[in-house]
Amino acid sequence: xxxxxxxxxxxxxxxxxxxxxxxxxxxxxxxxxxxxxxxxxxxxxxxxxxxxxxxxxxxxxxxxxxxxxxxxxxxxxxxxxxxxxxxxxxxxxxxxxxxxxxxxxxxxxxxxxxxxxxxxxxxxxxxxxxxxxxxxxxxxxxxxxxxxxxxxxxxxxxxxxxxxxxxxxxxxxxxxxxxxxxxxxxxxxxxxxxxxxxxxxxxxxxxxxxxxxxxxxxxxxxxxxxxxxxxxxxxxxxxxxxxxxxxxxxxxxxxxxxxxxxxxxxxxxxxxxxxxxxxxxxxxxxxxxxxxxxxxxxxxxxxxxxxxxxxxxxxxxxxxxxxxxxxxxxxxxxxxxxxxxxxxxxxxxxxxxxxxxxxxxxxxxxxxxxxxxxxxxxxxxxxxxxxxxxxxxxxxxxxxxxxxxxxxxxxxxxxxxxxxxxxxxxxxxxxxxxxxxxxxxxxxxxxxxxxxxxxxxxxxxxxxxxxxxxxxxxxxxxxxxxxxxxxxxxxxx
Length: 493
Known about the structure:
- This protein has helices spanning 74-93, 148-156, 158-176, 186-205, 218-229, 242-245, 250-263, 265-269, 273-280, 304-318, 359-365, 381-400, 407-423, 442-452, 468-480, 486-491, and strands spanning 43-44, 47-48, 55-56, 107-111, 132-135, 140-144, 212-213, 325-328, 346-349, 354-357, 428-429, 435-436.
- Helix content is 41%, strand content 8%.
- Strands 4-6-5 form a three-stranded mixed sheet, covered by helices on one side.
- It is found in: Membrane.
- Keywords: Membrane, Signal, Transmembrane, Transmembrane helix.
- This is Neutral zinc metallopeptidase.
């Protein structure tokens, strides 16, 4: 289908299930032990996880400044207000390790990507280019008011536009602070810019912006979702240059943003190619060739066979004393359990040690939408299969003797799912002769699911935590933590 040429996540397996999995671990936090603000179920990078208004403040000052090419509409008004606020923030917080002094950008430009008569921007026509960018040659920032920004507002809210402008201003900071040069890998530039955007959005979340406000639950999740929507497409075997010349995967971009939000300016300036590569570890970054020599499609069919193979692989990885049994549901009542709530499309029942799955409902969650318009958030087979894996993990946790009902359980499950991504980065030979493995894009699918439905980060009754930001932090802590899953049990005991 040529998915790798679009923004649709691709991913495959040879004849098997590709999914996430979970790792076992060993050591439970003692009761009453302190919880790091970063891993607190009810906080977001140390801030309370709360719902509330997101967008321009009702009493925000009017935007000031000139925008070339503007139609004076709501989109340009929002973008200019964002520039005003971002410039005010950085004029007050520009410091070491930045070099020199803060300087505002020279020029702001608005264009319509659907207008053939749009004037040249940074030396070329922006027609057909729904984009936003910083132009070093004249120190300008341009944005598409006709396509890209309206889509952002419609699907991800006004703060997604503010975050996008903050990213582009991050590029301006790189040049004025002499953090980049001609030899700097583009992916490093992009990751730093995402990180700088995170620093600024933290300022807004703390309530310190005169112009904008954002809640740390739903509002911040929408900003993260917008980053996922504009990630790089999944690469094929001939796209190796994109490892350094792209913007980054969904997890790359979210990680960089969260680094700025949580750790601040110094951590952003420290991002280099080695840092990006270490974060990616051994996870597959591009699609390869299948057994028949054809390019992997990136999607496994969600059916009983795939799920059966998935469970076979999980049993081999975890070797539980009493492996949970996979049951296929034909009616809602099949999910009923004497000691847990139903969590269709996949439920774990401790009393019977079974994972019940509604295959049709699960398939709907795993259908990849057409993301070429950036209007559909990433979704694929691993968005669905990771939910099933999370129910299997509850059985692993039950055998270990840890609590299955708590906010900590929800985050522990997300964390263990992250560990599993690493276990499946190499093909697993199964007794049946099938192979189970992770392919390019799987991690992104799982991360997107943690934002959109959160079901892979729930306890046995389906309870989760308020912030998608925190669910992804937990998932990523497993992805980069100890391979035995110890990190998950220590942080979310």
